[in-house]
Design goal:
By secondary structure, the protein is α+β, with helices and mostly antiparallel strands. Helix content is about 15%, strand content about 25%. It has four helices and eight strands; from the N terminus they run H-H-E-E-E-E-E-H-H-E-E-E. A hairpin with an 8-residue loop joins strand 4 and strand 5 (about 100-110). The longest helix has 8 residues, at about 115-120.
Length: about 200
């Protein structure tokens, strides 16, 4: 059995058809990336939900050419460039046409760690994918993956290995100014791979 076969994709039917529920569900799941050098994967330890009517969400003002992948049926990749610097990986989260999503904020690296180190130009394991821009760089995620179906094998997919993440914390989202007090960030309590200041991990 190849590494690729070790991580079967999560069936769309398993994904909750609700943004907040999906953000919580994805904690402990895997993001798997197939690169020419091999498989790279990490366990999701932090997510943020961007819900219907959310002023901080990219779908708040409706569909545009840039955000159209956010309006796909749940389980598709929405990849965008933030602040002209960092790619961000999101998962569309509800029925087609809704425009909501879950930002994947941090991963615990599992496979292809040396590839991640080369992609990031850093050695420290904790810093490879701790934060949405870092994880996208570590997995070499770019706009070419925007709109990809993450529920089937390809260059990038969501997988599950029946891992139980333990206690899941909930808090405010990081780095936003609108609807900033909503408790829509989920994370593995005690994980050193979660992003942001320690004060937000309580």
């Amino acid at each position: 059995m190849s590494q690729r076969d070790d991580h079967p994709p999560i069936a769309r039917a398993e994904l909750p058809n609700d943004t907040v529920a999906l953000a919580r569900f994805l904690i402990g799941k895997l993001v798997t990336r197939e690169l020419p050098e091999g498989i790279v994967s990490g366990r999701i330890v932090e997510t943020e939900a961007y819900v219907v009517g959310d002023a901080a969400g990219h779908g708040f003002r409706g569909m545009t050419p840039r955000n159209r992948s956010l309006f796909l049926e749940r389980g598709h990749a929405y990849v965008y460039l933030a602040y002209g610097v960092s790619m961000m990986l999101n998962v569309s989260s509800e029925m087609q046409g809704i425009g909501t999503g879950v930002l994947i904020r941090a991963l615990e690296p599992l496979e292809g760690i040396e590839i991640m180190r080369q992609n990031r130009g850093v050695e420290r394991l904790r810093d490879l994918a701790r934060g949405p821009g870092r994880l996208a760089a570590a997995l070499r995620i770019d706009r070419s993956l925007d709109g990809l179906d993450l529920c089937q094998k390809g260059p990038l997919w969501l997988a599950s290995d029946d891992f139980e993440p333990g206690e899941i914390g909930q808090g405010i989202r990081i780095g936003i100014s609108r609807d900033a007090d909503r408790l829509l960030r989920f994370y593995v309590r005690g994980s050193s791979f979660v992003s942001g200041p320690k004060s937000l991990q309580e």
